[in-house]
Amino acid sequence: MLIAMLIFIGAIISKTFPFNNDTRQMFMSLIINIAMPSIILSSIFNVEITKDSFKLIVIVFVISIGINLVGIALGSLFARIFYPKSTKKVEIAILSGLGNTGFIGIPLCLVLLGPEGALFAAIFDAGVDFTIWTVGVFLLQEEKKFNFSMFKSMINVPMLAIIFGLFSAYISFKPPIIFIDLFDRLAALAVPLAMFYIGAIVMTLQRSKVNNSSSKIWIPISVKLIILPIFVAIIVNFTRLETFIVQTIIIQSMMPTLTLASILFAKYSGDEDMGAVTTVVSTIAALLTIPLMLYVIDLFIAF
What we know:
By secondary structure, this protein is an all-alpha fold.
């Protein structure tokens, strides 16, 4: 309900100023370069990290990559079955496997599970970033090859915040309280800014784009919001991981399609419109599917 209201406010606000490439970049810069790193650092400095915690961090990172690859494989399988002649199989596969674990997932885990949940949600998101700029870029390229620029793209502010924060925790360093308070206050910007951004995108989406892309987006939406979360919930239920880790993994697995999809596709000659439409439609649908899936999983699985 809170997310829906924030998105609605963002939609209204977008009518008061021109939502163009400049304002879009401003929103993304504030979210990616300030709010998200602040959530990560705030979570790390407000949680006591032990050697066992570092083991869990590696486990969650690897699990994240595995879940992303399963989602991509499922999307590719459905695309080949239902649209064997389509030229959009790669886009469908990527949209099916990679979720909005940063913009929505980290703030949501912070609200639901506290700083520990946000910390491991950030690690899960790092796994998504790794998959985007390796497997995702590899699949979108006409010439299937890895290069230095691909790995250079993985160096971003949230990733640097994770590395710096974990290194600080490893050497038992904590910054002065005024900086921790600053991170806490900036972290509070993440949820409203991200939802305002999504609301603005909804209002700028053209009907023609929706009509051109709507015939195939049911695959990534079904896989990302329903099939993959159920699969993940069943698998992690048999692990011996702590409850809040299991909860974080399940919540992150049911996030809508990543916000960067249209940007990623535009950069590598994919279907930019399909990426934008799927992101918006899956985000709106997620307002219903996330609480519904949590309720269903809670009924049938020890959540």
